[in-house]
Amino acid sequence: MAITKTFRSDLMLQEEDIKQGFWVQDDVHLSHALTPLFASFMVPAVTEGTKVAFENLKMPLSQFRYKLADGRIYQYTVPYPGDLQKRLGEHKETMGSILPMLNQHLKNYVDQVFLPFYWSLDGDSKRALTVGEAKEKLLGLFDFYRKAWQLHFEIVLPRTAFMALEQMYGQLTGSADTVVVYDMLAGVMNKSLETDRELWKLADWAKQSPVLVAAFAEEATEVGYKVRIEQTEEGLALLKRLQDVLEIYGQRSTNSHEFNDETWAENPEYALRIIARYIKKDYDFDREFAETVRQREAKAEEVIAGLPEVELKQTFVRMYQWALDSWGLDEDHHFYIDAMLPAKSRQFLLKVGRLLVDQGVLEDKSDIFFLYLDELLAMLSEPTPLHAQIEQRKMELEVNKQKQPAPFYGTPPEVPMDPALERIFGGKPPEIQEQTFTGYAASQGTYTGMVKVVRRPEDFSKIQQGDVLVCKTTTPPWTVLFSIVGAIVTDAGGILSHAGTVAREYKLPAVVGSKVATSLLKDGDIVTVDGTKGVVHFGQQS
Protein backbone atom coordinates (compact mmCIF):
# COMPACT_ATOMS: atom_id res chain seq x y z
CA MET A 1 0.00 0.00 0.00
CA ALA A 2 1.54 3.26 -1.10
CA ILE A 3 1.34 6.30 1.16
CA THR A 4 -0.89 8.39 -1.07
CA LYS A 5 -3.75 10.83 -0.56
CA THR A 6 -6.11 7.85 -0.13
CA PHE A 7 -3.87 6.07 2.43
CA ARG A 8 -6.23 6.55 5.37
CA SER A 9 -9.39 5.58 3.50
CA ASP A 10 -7.58 2.53 2.10
CA LEU A 11 -7.05 1.30 5.64
CA MET A 12 -10.78 1.39 6.41
CA LEU A 13 -13.35 -1.28 5.71
CA GLN A 14 -15.65 0.13 3.03
CA GLU A 15 -19.01 -0.99 1.68
CA GLU A 16 -17.34 -2.14 -1.52
CA ASP A 17 -15.00 -4.36 0.51
CA ILE A 18 -17.97 -5.94 2.28
CA LYS A 19 -19.60 -6.73 -1.06
CA GLN A 20 -16.44 -8.48 -2.23
CA GLY A 21 -15.71 -10.71 0.75
CA PHE A 22 -16.47 -12.04 4.21
CA TRP A 23 -14.61 -10.07 6.88
CA VAL A 24 -14.13 -11.67 10.32
CA GLN A 25 -12.83 -9.81 13.34
CA ASP A 26 -9.43 -11.23 14.31
CA ASP A 27 -10.20 -11.66 17.99
CA VAL A 28 -7.46 -14.27 18.37
CA HIS A 29 -4.44 -12.03 17.69
CA LEU A 30 -5.78 -8.46 17.62
CA SER A 31 -8.84 -8.40 19.81
CA HIS A 32 -8.07 -4.93 21.19
CA ALA A 33 -8.78 -1.53 19.62
CA LEU A 34 -5.79 -0.17 17.72
CA THR A 35 -4.14 3.22 17.62
CA PRO A 36 -4.08 4.99 14.23
CA LEU A 37 -0.30 4.77 13.81
CA PHE A 38 -0.15 1.06 14.60
CA ALA A 39 -3.01 0.37 12.19
CA SER A 40 -1.07 2.33 9.55
CA PHE A 41 1.73 -0.21 9.80
CA MET A 42 -0.19 -3.41 10.53
CA VAL A 43 -2.93 -3.31 7.89
CA PRO A 44 -0.58 -2.98 4.89
CA ALA A 45 1.99 -5.31 6.45
CA VAL A 46 -0.34 -8.30 6.71
CA THR A 47 -2.29 -7.56 3.52
CA GLU A 48 0.82 -7.28 1.37
CA GLY A 49 3.05 -9.62 3.37
CA THR A 50 0.67 -12.56 3.13
CA LYS A 51 0.33 -12.08 -0.62
CA VAL A 52 4.05 -12.71 -1.05
CA ALA A 53 4.29 -15.39 1.65
CA PHE A 54 1.33 -17.39 0.34
CA GLU A 55 2.83 -17.39 -3.15
CA ASN A 56 6.22 -18.50 -1.84
CA LEU A 57 4.59 -21.32 0.14
CA LYS A 58 2.20 -22.18 -2.73
CA MET A 59 -0.68 -21.87 -0.28
CA PRO A 60 -4.17 -22.81 -1.50
CA LEU A 61 -5.17 -19.23 -0.58
CA SER A 62 -4.24 -15.89 -2.14
CA GLN A 63 -3.75 -13.73 0.94
CA PHE A 64 -5.24 -12.35 4.13
CA ARG A 65 -6.60 -8.85 3.64
CA TYR A 66 -6.80 -6.62 6.69
CA LYS A 67 -9.09 -3.62 7.14
CA LEU A 68 -10.03 -1.41 10.06
CA ALA A 69 -13.55 -0.92 11.43
CA ASP A 70 -14.43 0.59 14.82
CA GLY A 71 -10.73 0.60 15.59
CA ARG A 72 -10.42 -3.17 15.21
CA ILE A 73 -8.96 -5.49 12.60
CA TYR A 74 -11.16 -7.48 10.24
CA GLN A 75 -9.68 -10.20 8.06
CA TYR A 76 -10.81 -11.49 4.68
CA THR A 77 -9.27 -14.78 3.58
CA VAL A 78 -9.00 -14.40 -0.19
CA PRO A 79 -9.52 -17.71 -2.05
CA TYR A 80 -6.97 -18.97 -4.55
CA PRO A 81 -8.34 -18.19 -8.03
CA GLY A 82 -6.59 -20.93 -10.02
CA ASP A 83 -6.65 -24.74 -10.21
CA LEU A 84 -6.99 -25.66 -6.53
CA GLN A 85 -5.95 -29.31 -6.89
CA LYS A 86 -2.80 -28.37 -8.78
CA ARG A 87 -2.02 -25.72 -6.17
CA LEU A 88 -2.48 -28.23 -3.34
CA GLY A 89 0.03 -30.51 -5.02
CA GLU A 90 2.55 -27.67 -5.30
CA HIS A 91 1.94 -26.75 -1.67
CA LYS A 92 2.52 -30.31 -0.48
CA GLU A 93 5.79 -30.48 -2.40
CA THR A 94 6.93 -27.14 -0.97
CA MET A 95 6.08 -28.20 2.58
CA GLY A 96 8.06 -31.41 2.17
CA SER A 97 11.26 -29.41 1.77
CA ILE A 98 10.47 -26.95 4.59
CA LEU A 99 9.15 -29.06 7.48
CA PRO A 100 12.48 -30.68 8.49
CA MET A 101 14.08 -27.21 8.66
CA LEU A 102 11.48 -25.02 10.39
CA ASN A 103 13.54 -24.14 13.45
CA GLN A 104 16.60 -23.44 11.34
CA HIS A 105 14.57 -21.13 9.10
CA LEU A 106 13.45 -19.12 12.12
CA LYS A 107 16.99 -18.94 13.50
CA ASN A 108 18.36 -17.79 10.14
CA TYR A 109 15.77 -15.05 9.80
CA VAL A 110 16.27 -13.91 13.40
CA ASP A 111 20.05 -13.76 13.05
CA GLN A 112 20.23 -12.35 9.54
CA VAL A 113 17.14 -10.12 9.24
CA PHE A 114 15.40 -9.26 12.49
CA LEU A 115 18.18 -8.73 15.02
CA PRO A 116 20.32 -6.56 12.69
CA PHE A 117 17.29 -4.36 12.01
CA TYR A 118 16.49 -4.13 15.73
CA TRP A 119 20.09 -3.13 16.53
CA SER A 120 19.86 -0.41 13.90
CA LEU A 121 16.51 0.74 15.30
CA ASP A 122 17.97 0.80 18.82
CA GLY A 123 20.75 3.05 17.56
CA ASP A 124 18.27 5.43 15.91
CA SER A 125 16.26 5.53 19.14
CA LYS A 126 19.25 6.75 21.12
CA ARG A 127 20.72 9.40 18.85
CA ALA A 128 19.59 12.82 17.70
CA LEU A 129 17.61 12.71 14.46
CA THR A 130 17.06 15.42 11.90
CA VAL A 131 13.60 15.79 10.38
CA GLY A 132 14.89 14.36 7.12
CA GLU A 133 16.38 11.33 8.87
CA ALA A 134 13.16 10.78 10.81
CA LYS A 135 11.14 10.66 7.58
CA GLU A 136 13.62 8.33 5.93
CA LYS A 137 13.69 5.98 8.91
CA LEU A 138 9.88 5.98 9.19
CA LEU A 139 9.56 4.89 5.57
CA GLY A 140 12.22 2.26 6.18
CA LEU A 141 10.28 0.94 9.16
CA PHE A 142 7.08 0.89 7.10
CA ASP A 143 8.81 -1.22 4.44
CA PHE A 144 10.37 -3.51 7.06
CA TYR A 145 6.97 -4.15 8.65
CA ARG A 146 5.75 -5.61 5.36
CA LYS A 147 8.88 -7.76 5.03
CA ALA A 148 8.61 -8.86 8.66
CA TRP A 149 5.05 -10.07 8.27
CA GLN A 150 5.85 -11.83 5.02
CA LEU A 151 8.55 -13.76 6.89
CA HIS A 152 6.22 -14.18 9.88
CA PHE A 153 3.79 -16.20 7.78
CA GLU A 154 6.52 -18.06 5.94
CA ILE A 155 7.84 -19.15 9.34
CA VAL A 156 4.51 -19.96 11.02
CA LEU A 157 2.17 -21.37 8.40
CA PRO A 158 4.18 -24.50 7.54
CA ARG A 159 3.58 -25.62 11.13
CA THR A 160 -0.08 -26.20 10.25
CA ALA A 161 1.07 -29.11 8.02
CA PHE A 162 1.58 -31.09 11.21
CA MET A 163 -2.20 -31.42 11.34
CA ALA A 164 -1.51 -34.39 9.06
CA LEU A 165 -0.46 -36.21 12.23
CA GLU A 166 -4.12 -36.21 13.26
CA GLN A 167 -5.20 -37.79 9.99
CA MET A 168 -2.44 -40.41 10.06
CA TYR A 169 -3.17 -41.25 13.69
CA GLY A 170 -6.84 -41.77 12.82
CA GLN A 171 -5.94 -44.01 9.88
CA LEU A 172 -3.50 -46.06 11.93
CA THR A 173 -5.69 -46.52 15.00
CA GLY A 174 -9.26 -46.10 13.79
CA SER A 175 -9.77 -43.65 16.68
CA ALA A 176 -11.89 -40.54 16.25
CA ASP A 177 -10.04 -38.79 19.10
CA THR A 178 -7.18 -37.63 16.92
CA VAL A 179 -6.29 -34.48 18.87
CA VAL A 180 -4.47 -36.75 21.31
CA VAL A 181 -1.42 -36.26 19.07
CA TYR A 182 -1.01 -32.77 20.53
CA ASP A 183 -0.47 -34.27 24.00
CA MET A 184 2.61 -35.85 22.41
CA LEU A 185 3.93 -32.34 21.70
CA ALA A 186 3.74 -30.85 25.20
CA GLY A 187 6.86 -30.18 27.22
CA VAL A 188 8.81 -28.34 24.54
CA MET A 189 10.71 -25.33 25.87
CA ASN A 190 10.01 -22.00 24.17
CA LYS A 191 10.53 -18.29 24.77
CA SER A 192 7.25 -17.83 26.65
CA LEU A 193 8.07 -20.67 29.02
CA GLU A 194 11.64 -19.38 29.33
CA THR A 195 10.26 -16.00 30.43
CA ASP A 196 8.00 -17.62 33.02
CA ARG A 197 10.92 -19.70 34.30
CA GLU A 198 13.18 -16.66 34.72
CA LEU A 199 10.54 -14.84 36.76
CA TRP A 200 9.91 -17.96 38.85
CA LYS A 201 13.65 -18.19 39.55
CA LEU A 202 13.67 -14.58 40.75
CA ALA A 203 10.70 -15.32 43.01
CA ASP A 204 12.44 -18.42 44.35
CA TRP A 205 15.50 -16.28 45.14
CA ALA A 206 13.35 -13.60 46.79
CA LYS A 207 11.68 -16.20 49.03
CA GLN A 208 14.96 -16.52 50.92
CA SER A 209 14.55 -12.95 52.20
CA PRO A 210 11.95 -12.31 54.94
CA VAL A 211 12.11 -8.62 54.01
CA LEU A 212 11.07 -9.33 50.40
CA VAL A 213 8.46 -11.91 51.38
CA ALA A 214 6.86 -9.32 53.65
CA ALA A 215 7.02 -6.63 50.95
CA PHE A 216 5.21 -8.88 48.46
CA ALA A 217 2.72 -10.29 50.98
CA GLU A 218 0.03 -7.70 50.28
CA GLU A 219 -1.59 -7.01 46.94
CA ALA A 220 -0.04 -4.18 44.96
CA THR A 221 -1.58 -0.75 45.36
CA GLU A 222 -1.58 1.91 42.68
CA VAL A 223 1.92 2.83 43.84
CA GLY A 224 3.11 -0.70 43.12
CA TYR A 225 5.73 -3.10 44.44
CA LYS A 226 8.77 -1.24 43.08
CA VAL A 227 8.31 1.67 45.49
CA ARG A 228 8.00 -0.78 48.37
CA ILE A 229 11.12 -2.80 47.69
CA GLU A 230 13.56 -0.18 46.40
CA GLN A 231 13.89 1.20 49.93
CA THR A 232 15.76 -1.92 51.04
CA GLU A 233 19.10 -3.47 50.14
CA GLU A 234 17.41 -6.76 49.29
CA GLY A 235 14.89 -4.97 47.10
CA LEU A 236 17.58 -3.17 45.14
CA ALA A 237 19.37 -6.47 44.59
CA LEU A 238 16.16 -8.02 43.26
CA LEU A 239 15.57 -5.06 40.95
CA LYS A 240 19.11 -5.42 39.59
CA ARG A 241 18.54 -9.10 38.86
CA LEU A 242 15.17 -8.28 37.29
CA GLN A 243 16.73 -5.63 35.08
CA ASP A 244 19.14 -8.23 33.71
CA VAL A 245 16.22 -10.55 32.95
CA LEU A 246 14.18 -7.82 31.28
CA GLU A 247 17.12 -6.89 29.05
CA ILE A 248 16.42 -10.22 27.35
CA TYR A 249 12.75 -10.95 28.03
CA GLY A 250 11.24 -7.50 28.58
CA GLN A 251 9.79 -6.86 25.12
CA ARG A 252 6.30 -7.88 26.24
CA SER A 253 3.47 -5.39 26.64
CA THR A 254 -0.14 -5.38 27.77
CA ASN A 255 -1.44 -5.95 24.25
CA SER A 256 0.84 -7.76 21.88
CA HIS A 257 1.17 -5.92 18.57
CA GLU A 258 0.85 -2.30 19.66
CA PHE A 259 2.97 0.85 19.87
CA ASN A 260 1.00 2.63 22.58
CA ASP A 261 1.57 0.17 25.45
CA GLU A 262 4.70 0.46 27.57
CA THR A 263 6.85 -2.66 27.71
CA TRP A 264 8.01 -4.63 30.73
CA ALA A 265 11.53 -3.34 30.06
CA GLU A 266 10.22 0.22 30.51
CA ASN A 267 8.18 -0.54 33.61
CA PRO A 268 9.27 -3.50 35.77
CA GLU A 269 6.04 -3.30 37.78
CA TYR A 270 4.40 -5.79 35.37
CA ALA A 271 7.07 -8.39 36.09
CA LEU A 272 7.09 -7.61 39.84
CA ARG A 273 3.40 -8.42 40.05
CA ILE A 274 4.10 -11.79 38.48
CA ILE A 275 6.99 -12.39 40.87
CA ALA A 276 4.60 -11.60 43.72
CA ARG A 277 2.27 -14.34 42.47
CA TYR A 278 5.05 -16.90 42.42
CA ILE A 279 6.24 -15.91 45.92
CA LYS A 280 2.77 -16.47 47.37
CA LYS A 281 2.36 -20.00 46.02
CA ASP A 282 4.07 -23.33 46.36
CA TYR A 283 5.22 -23.84 42.80
CA ASP A 284 8.32 -25.29 41.20
CA PHE A 285 8.57 -24.54 37.49
CA ASP A 286 11.39 -26.99 36.85
CA ARG A 287 9.63 -29.84 38.64
CA GLU A 288 6.35 -29.21 36.83
CA PHE A 289 8.02 -28.88 33.43
CA ALA A 290 10.05 -32.06 33.96
CA GLU A 291 6.81 -33.88 34.77
CA THR A 292 5.20 -32.56 31.58
CA VAL A 293 8.18 -33.83 29.59
CA ARG A 294 7.99 -37.21 31.32
CA GLN A 295 4.27 -37.55 30.55
CA ARG A 296 4.83 -36.51 26.94
CA GLU A 297 7.61 -39.04 26.44
CA ALA A 298 5.55 -41.80 28.04
CA LYS A 299 2.52 -40.93 25.90
CA ALA A 300 4.59 -40.86 22.71
CA GLU A 301 6.21 -44.19 23.53
CA GLU A 302 2.82 -45.75 24.27
CA VAL A 303 1.19 -44.41 21.09
CA ILE A 304 4.05 -45.29 18.75
CA ALA A 305 4.46 -48.78 20.22
CA GLY A 306 0.75 -49.43 19.67
CA LEU A 307 0.71 -48.47 15.98
CA PRO A 308 0.61 -51.27 13.40
CA GLU A 309 3.92 -51.98 11.62
CA VAL A 310 3.03 -50.51 8.26
CA GLU A 311 4.68 -47.91 6.04
CA LEU A 312 2.36 -45.18 7.27
CA LYS A 313 3.74 -45.65 10.79
CA GLN A 314 7.21 -44.70 9.60
CA THR A 315 5.80 -41.58 7.95
CA PHE A 316 3.96 -40.72 11.17
CA VAL A 317 7.07 -41.16 13.32
CA ARG A 318 9.19 -39.06 10.95
CA MET A 319 6.66 -36.20 10.87
CA TYR A 320 6.16 -36.44 14.62
CA GLN A 321 9.89 -35.92 15.14
CA TRP A 322 9.85 -32.87 12.85
CA ALA A 323 6.89 -31.48 14.79
CA LEU A 324 8.57 -32.11 18.14
CA ASP A 325 11.77 -30.41 16.99
CA SER A 326 9.89 -27.26 15.93
CA TRP A 327 6.93 -27.10 18.32
CA GLY A 328 8.40 -24.21 20.29
CA LEU A 329 8.40 -22.13 17.12
CA ASP A 330 4.89 -20.78 17.72
CA GLU A 331 5.88 -18.97 20.93
CA ASP A 332 9.40 -18.21 19.68
CA HIS A 333 8.25 -16.39 16.54
CA HIS A 334 5.93 -14.31 18.74
CA PHE A 335 8.90 -13.38 20.92
CA TYR A 336 11.07 -12.22 18.01
CA ILE A 337 8.42 -10.76 15.69
CA ASP A 338 4.97 -10.15 17.18
CA ALA A 339 6.33 -8.68 20.44
CA MET A 340 9.85 -7.48 19.70
CA LEU A 341 9.06 -5.63 16.46
CA PRO A 342 6.46 -3.26 17.97
CA ALA A 343 8.50 -2.92 21.18
CA LYS A 344 11.61 -1.81 19.31
CA SER A 345 9.52 0.32 16.95
CA ARG A 346 7.87 2.02 19.94
CA GLN A 347 11.17 3.39 21.21
CA PHE A 348 12.09 4.77 17.79
CA LEU A 349 8.64 6.31 17.32
CA LEU A 350 8.82 7.96 20.74
CA LYS A 351 12.12 9.46 19.62
CA VAL A 352 10.36 10.93 16.58
CA GLY A 353 7.56 12.09 18.89
CA ARG A 354 10.11 13.91 21.04
CA LEU A 355 11.42 15.63 17.91
CA LEU A 356 7.90 16.91 17.19
CA VAL A 357 7.42 18.02 20.79
CA ASP A 358 10.60 20.06 20.48
CA GLN A 359 9.14 21.63 17.33
CA GLY A 360 5.99 22.55 19.26
CA VAL A 361 3.54 20.48 17.18
CA LEU A 362 2.91 17.71 19.73
CA GLU A 363 2.16 18.20 23.41
CA ASP A 364 3.51 14.79 24.41
CA LYS A 365 5.79 12.39 22.55
CA SER A 366 3.24 9.55 22.85
CA ASP A 367 0.71 11.66 20.91
CA ILE A 368 2.49 10.38 17.83
CA PHE A 369 0.56 7.11 18.13
CA PHE A 370 -2.69 8.96 17.40
CA LEU A 371 -1.57 10.11 13.97
CA TYR A 372 -1.91 8.07 10.81
CA LEU A 373 1.37 7.56 9.01
CA ASP A 374 0.51 9.92 6.16
CA GLU A 375 -0.31 12.65 8.71
CA LEU A 376 2.94 12.01 10.56
CA LEU A 377 5.03 12.30 7.40
CA ALA A 378 3.18 15.48 6.44
CA MET A 379 3.74 16.91 9.93
CA LEU A 380 7.48 16.28 9.62
CA SER A 381 7.51 18.10 6.27
CA GLU A 382 5.30 20.98 7.40
CA PRO A 383 5.04 21.15 11.21
CA THR A 384 1.36 21.83 11.86
CA PRO A 385 -0.20 21.14 15.29
CA LEU A 386 -3.15 18.73 15.38
CA HIS A 387 -3.86 18.95 19.11
CA ALA A 388 -7.65 18.87 18.85
CA GLN A 389 -7.64 15.95 16.41
CA ILE A 390 -5.28 13.96 18.61
CA GLU A 391 -7.47 14.50 21.70
CA GLN A 392 -10.50 13.43 19.69
CA ARG A 393 -8.74 10.22 18.63
CA LYS A 394 -7.75 9.46 22.19
CA MET A 395 -11.41 9.63 23.14
CA GLU A 396 -12.35 7.51 20.13
CA LEU A 397 -9.86 4.85 21.23
CA GLU A 398 -11.44 4.70 24.68
CA VAL A 399 -14.90 4.43 23.12
CA ASN A 400 -13.70 1.66 20.79
CA LYS A 401 -12.23 -0.26 23.73
CA GLN A 402 -15.68 -0.41 25.32
CA LYS A 403 -17.54 -1.37 22.14
CA GLN A 404 -18.78 -4.86 21.49
CA PRO A 405 -17.49 -5.18 17.91
CA ALA A 406 -19.44 -6.87 15.15
CA PRO A 407 -18.07 -10.42 14.79
CA PHE A 408 -18.08 -10.13 11.00
CA TYR A 409 -19.15 -8.11 7.97
CA GLY A 410 -20.45 -9.55 4.73
CA THR A 411 -22.05 -12.86 3.78
CA PRO A 412 -20.50 -16.03 5.21
CA PRO A 413 -19.17 -18.32 2.47
CA GLU A 414 -20.96 -21.57 1.76
CA VAL A 415 -17.73 -23.60 1.79
CA PRO A 416 -16.43 -24.60 5.24
CA MET A 417 -13.40 -22.88 6.75
CA ASP A 418 -10.00 -24.28 5.84
CA PRO A 419 -9.19 -26.88 8.56
CA ALA A 420 -5.73 -25.43 9.20
CA LEU A 421 -7.15 -21.95 9.78
CA GLU A 422 -9.88 -23.35 12.01
CA ARG A 423 -7.25 -25.01 14.19
CA ILE A 424 -5.74 -21.55 14.81
CA PHE A 425 -8.66 -19.11 14.63
CA GLY A 426 -11.59 -21.35 15.55
CA GLY A 427 -14.78 -20.39 13.81
CA LYS A 428 -17.56 -22.84 14.47
CA PRO A 429 -20.84 -21.28 15.67
CA PRO A 430 -21.66 -21.41 19.38
CA GLU A 431 -23.73 -24.30 20.69
CA ILE A 432 -25.66 -23.37 23.82
CA GLN A 433 -28.09 -25.57 25.69
CA GLU A 434 -29.82 -24.97 29.00
CA GLN A 435 -26.70 -25.26 31.18
CA THR A 436 -23.89 -26.08 28.78
CA PHE A 437 -22.03 -24.55 25.90
CA THR A 438 -19.36 -26.01 23.66
CA GLY A 439 -16.07 -24.99 22.12
CA TYR A 440 -12.95 -26.79 20.93
CA ALA A 441 -11.45 -29.46 23.18
CA ALA A 442 -7.99 -27.92 23.46
CA SER A 443 -6.49 -29.61 26.53
CA GLN A 444 -7.75 -32.78 28.15
CA GLY A 445 -9.12 -33.19 31.65
CA THR A 446 -12.09 -32.05 33.74
CA TYR A 447 -12.09 -29.36 36.40
CA THR A 448 -14.73 -27.65 38.52
CA GLY A 449 -14.04 -24.22 39.93
CA MET A 450 -15.05 -20.57 40.32
CA VAL A 451 -15.10 -18.28 37.28
CA LYS A 452 -13.01 -15.15 37.04
CA VAL A 453 -13.61 -13.18 33.84
CA VAL A 454 -10.42 -11.41 32.77
CA ARG A 455 -10.86 -8.81 30.04
CA ARG A 456 -7.50 -7.05 30.35
CA PRO A 457 -4.22 -7.49 32.25
CA GLU A 458 -5.44 -5.03 34.87
CA ASP A 459 -7.84 -7.82 35.94
CA PHE A 460 -5.01 -10.29 36.67
CA SER A 461 -4.95 -9.38 40.35
CA LYS A 462 -8.40 -10.86 40.99
CA ILE A 463 -7.29 -14.35 39.94
CA GLN A 464 -6.87 -16.67 42.93
CA GLN A 465 -5.38 -20.16 43.09
CA GLY A 466 -7.69 -22.66 41.39
CA ASP A 467 -10.00 -20.19 39.65
CA VAL A 468 -11.29 -20.87 36.14
CA LEU A 469 -9.86 -18.25 33.77
CA VAL A 470 -12.52 -17.02 31.34
CA CYS A 471 -11.40 -14.55 28.69
CA LYS A 472 -11.62 -13.52 25.05
CA THR A 473 -8.19 -14.92 24.21
CA THR A 474 -4.69 -15.08 25.66
CA THR A 475 -1.28 -13.86 24.53
CA PRO A 476 2.19 -14.64 25.99
CA PRO A 477 1.99 -11.97 28.75
CA TRP A 478 -0.93 -13.96 30.17
CA THR A 479 1.03 -17.17 30.74
CA VAL A 480 1.75 -16.37 34.39
CA LEU A 481 -1.93 -17.05 35.08
CA PHE A 482 -1.59 -20.60 33.76
CA SER A 483 0.36 -21.67 36.84
CA ILE A 484 -2.39 -20.30 39.10
CA VAL A 485 -5.71 -21.25 37.52
CA GLY A 486 -7.37 -24.66 37.37
CA ALA A 487 -8.84 -24.45 33.86
CA ILE A 488 -9.25 -22.08 30.92
CA VAL A 489 -12.23 -21.11 28.75
CA THR A 490 -11.94 -18.63 25.87
CA ASP A 491 -14.25 -16.99 23.37
CA ALA A 492 -11.74 -17.11 20.52
CA GLY A 493 -9.27 -19.48 18.94
CA GLY A 494 -8.82 -23.09 17.94
CA ILE A 495 -6.79 -25.88 19.50
CA LEU A 496 -3.57 -24.52 18.00
CA SER A 497 -4.19 -21.01 19.33
CA HIS A 498 -1.94 -19.64 22.09
CA ALA A 499 -4.43 -20.55 24.82
CA GLY A 500 -4.77 -24.13 23.64
CA THR A 501 -1.06 -24.73 23.11
CA VAL A 502 0.05 -23.30 26.46
CA ALA A 503 -2.80 -24.95 28.39
CA ARG A 504 -1.41 -28.30 27.28
CA GLU A 505 2.03 -27.28 28.55
CA TYR A 506 0.54 -26.56 31.98
CA LYS A 507 -1.76 -29.62 31.89
CA LEU A 508 -4.86 -27.44 32.33
CA PRO A 509 -8.28 -28.51 31.03
CA ALA A 510 -9.19 -25.99 28.34
CA VAL A 511 -12.16 -25.25 26.10
CA VAL A 512 -11.40 -22.57 23.50
CA GLY A 513 -13.32 -20.81 20.74
CA SER A 514 -16.67 -20.95 22.53
CA LYS A 515 -17.67 -17.48 21.21
CA VAL A 516 -19.90 -16.96 24.27
CA ALA A 517 -17.95 -17.61 27.48
CA THR A 518 -17.37 -13.98 28.48
CA SER A 519 -21.02 -13.17 27.70
CA LEU A 520 -22.62 -16.08 29.56
CA LEU A 521 -20.34 -16.30 32.59
CA LYS A 522 -19.58 -13.85 35.38
CA ASP A 523 -17.25 -13.72 38.35
CA GLY A 524 -18.25 -16.20 41.03
CA ASP A 525 -20.07 -18.67 38.78
CA ILE A 526 -19.21 -22.32 39.37
CA VAL A 527 -18.48 -24.24 36.17
CA THR A 528 -17.13 -27.60 35.14
CA VAL A 529 -14.71 -27.43 32.24
CA ASP A 530 -14.47 -30.64 30.23
CA GLY A 531 -11.38 -30.14 28.10
CA THR A 532 -11.65 -33.66 26.71
CA LYS A 533 -15.11 -33.20 25.17
CA GLY A 534 -14.96 -29.43 24.66
CA VAL A 535 -17.95 -28.71 26.90
CA VAL A 536 -18.50 -26.21 29.73
CA HIS A 537 -21.25 -26.91 32.28
CA PHE A 538 -22.52 -23.80 34.05
CA GLY A 539 -25.39 -22.80 36.33
CA GLN A 540 -24.01 -24.92 39.17
CA GLN A 541 -24.33 -23.99 42.85
CA SER A 542 -21.23 -23.32 44.96
Automatic annotation (TrEMBL):
It comes from the Bacteria. It comes from Paenibacillus baimaensis. This is PEP-utilizing enzyme. Residues 463-534 form the PEP-utilising enzyme mobile domain. Transmembrane segments: none annotated. It holds the Pfam family PEP-utilizers. InterPro entries: PEP-util_enz_mobile_dom, PEP_Utilizing_Enz, Phosphohistidine_dom_sf.
